[in-house]
Amino acid sequence: MATNTNHPQVVFIGIGCPSGCGKTTYGRHLVNRLRSPLHLIELDHFFNRGISIDHPILGRIESQEEPDTLDIQQLLNLLRHIKYEPEKNNSIPFR
């Protein structure tokens, strides 16, 4: 992203793995190490609902690991505000 005198440069780092692999722990480490002015943004905060899926071994189960369980539009809106209009949004998770 190009910067100007009014906006600091924003760099997003995405970490993807299955649940319980340490994404949040690693993300917190990065936030602290890089001295980010932002809080960690966790997908857990955008969880909508579990959905029923047919698991090949377990049969019909309630899953929270499917993309349809997240409110992706809300996440994208937050990321756009952080990147393009940080001064206009009080909901940006600054530390």
UniProtKB/TrEMBL annotation:
Give the superkingdom in one word: Eukaryota
- List the InterPro entries: P-loop_NTPase
**The protein's name in its UniProt record:** Phosphoribulokinase/uridine kinase domain-containing protein
What is the organism of origin for this protein?
Rotaria magnacalcarata
